Amino acid sequence: MSATELKSCTSCGVPLVGRGSAYFPCPQCGNTTVGRCARCRDQSVEYTCPACGFVGP
């Protein structure tokens, strides 16, 4: 999934629009794009990669 296809935060599911949102490849597998909203990034809410199960802060 590319960053342009990702539409919601991997942690909480809110739509990723506006400032503070981030997209990056999974640190473990690199095969999936992880999306994070500003709130989850700021509060270090855990996310789980849907491809490999990696859990990150």
Number of helices: 1
What is the count of β-strands?
4
Shape: globular
Strand order of the largest sheet: 1-2
**Could you tell me the mean pLDDT?**
89
Alpha-beta content class: mainly beta
Number of domains: 1
State the helical fraction: under 10%
Unreliable runs: none
Percentage of β-strand residues:
15-25%
Question: What separation lies between the terminal Cα atoms?
Answer: 21 Å
Main β-sheet: number of strands, strand sense, barrel status? 2 strands, antiparallel
H/E topology pattern: EEHEE
Report the C-alpha radius of gyration, rounded. Answer: 10 Å
Which keywords apply here?
about 55 residues, mainly beta, two-stranded antiparallel sheet, globular, single chain
Characterise the protein shown here:
This protein has one domain (1-57). The protein has one helix and four strands. It has one helix at 38-42; strands at residues 22-25, 33-36, 47-48, 55-56. The radius of gyration is 10 Å and the shape is globular. The relative contact order is 0.27.
Task: Spell out the blueprint of helices and strands.
Elements: E1 22-25, E2 33-36, H1 38-42, E3 47-48, E4 55-56
Antiparallel strand pairs: 1-2, 3-4
In a few lines, what is going on in this structure?
The chain is mainly beta and 57 residues long. The chain has one domain (1-57). The chain has one helix at residues 38-42; strands spanning 22-25, 33-36, 47-48, 55-56.
